[in-house]
């Protein structure tokens, strides 16, 4: 292939139109009391409260949009930051709840998780790069919470969750939260210039991918005991869990592939060679075992340990991460097969996932690629879809810091 789609004016124009359409759709998720909540399939706010993982992601999305010159995006980023400083934050004990309480006080479930708090770091880091008021202070606080509460000083790996007072730590460790800590640390390093966060990201990636996945035939383990022994049968009775499904999650193989390329770029000349090699391996296996393996296009959600589909629904976020992994590896290596997959998966997204009638993307499709809601109801957030239309036009690395330092690439 002579050129990458991401370099073509026509493709970039299509991505920009889709970006603006997504941003308009997501604005309805801003809640009057602060923060963002989930939207239903028609783009209407649901009855639930503000949620921290959604709000952190929206702070990230609208900060990127502000850096890309989208009017009104900065105000929506600020609304997310207000929620993170207000109804979602534990003013008494520090850290962030999963969601706001209806009365603005302490929610019934006051658990604090690494997954949720990682998105506070991501949102605050992108908002810091975008120069949003109060973002730098929020980022410093969020990084302190992650460093003192969630990072194990002996292993450098993440603890999963605590009760409100930080007294009891969950007897479980998860690869999903570790992956998002890597993403958050790269964003923090880009926004602050503090290279320690890159080193910490590398430590987590090295264990979860280069040790745990490599030692399991590259079938990425998702669930571990507190001392990091694999729990292969975890949630066997709840295979379609949103955040902790049984088996291995193909989309995370692709997400890790992208993050490993970004980590390699962030580390520069000091990056270990295994980062690119492992990214390529995860990508290839995701295609082999996850794409169109049951008679229809699309990635299945989960596999068992013999590479057989368990939950066959197609999640929008997996297709988005597939596009991003193909874009990152194609740009890094110049190899044409990544570009072929990039085009294949955009065709799939446009045909099946983009909801031209009601806005946004369908978050879940059934095995025949019709909209469904077995795992996910509605259209909770923009994060994966938005990154899919923005990051392919940028070099690997923290997007907000790049856009701050190279504003000419925003168009």
Give a verbal description of the structure:
It is a single chain. With 411 residues, this protein is mainly alpha-helical. Helix content is 49%, strand content 4%. The chain has 13 helices and eight strands. The protein has helices spanning 9-26, 52-67, 73-85, 114-129, 135-150, 175-192, 196-213, 250-267, 274-290, 316-333, 336-353, 383-390, 399-405; strands at 112-113, 161-162, 173-174, 223-224, 248-249, 302-303, 314-315, 364-365. Helix 9 crosses helix 10 (316-333). It is globular, with a radius of gyration of 20 Å. The two termini are 24 Å apart.
Summarize the structure.
The chain is mainly α. It has 13 helices and 8 strands.
The termini sit apart by 24 Å
Content-based structural category: mainly alpha
Strand line-up of the largest beta sheet: 1-2
Succession of helices and strands: HHHEHHEEHHEEHHEEHHEHH
Beta-strand portion reads: under 5%
Helix content: 40-55%
> How many individual helices?
13
Shape: globular
Q: What composes the largest sheet?
A: 2 strands, antiparallel
Give the integer mean of the pLDDT values. 97
Q: Poorly predicted ranges (pLDDT <50, ≥5 residues)?
A: none
Rg: 20 Å
Strand tally? 8
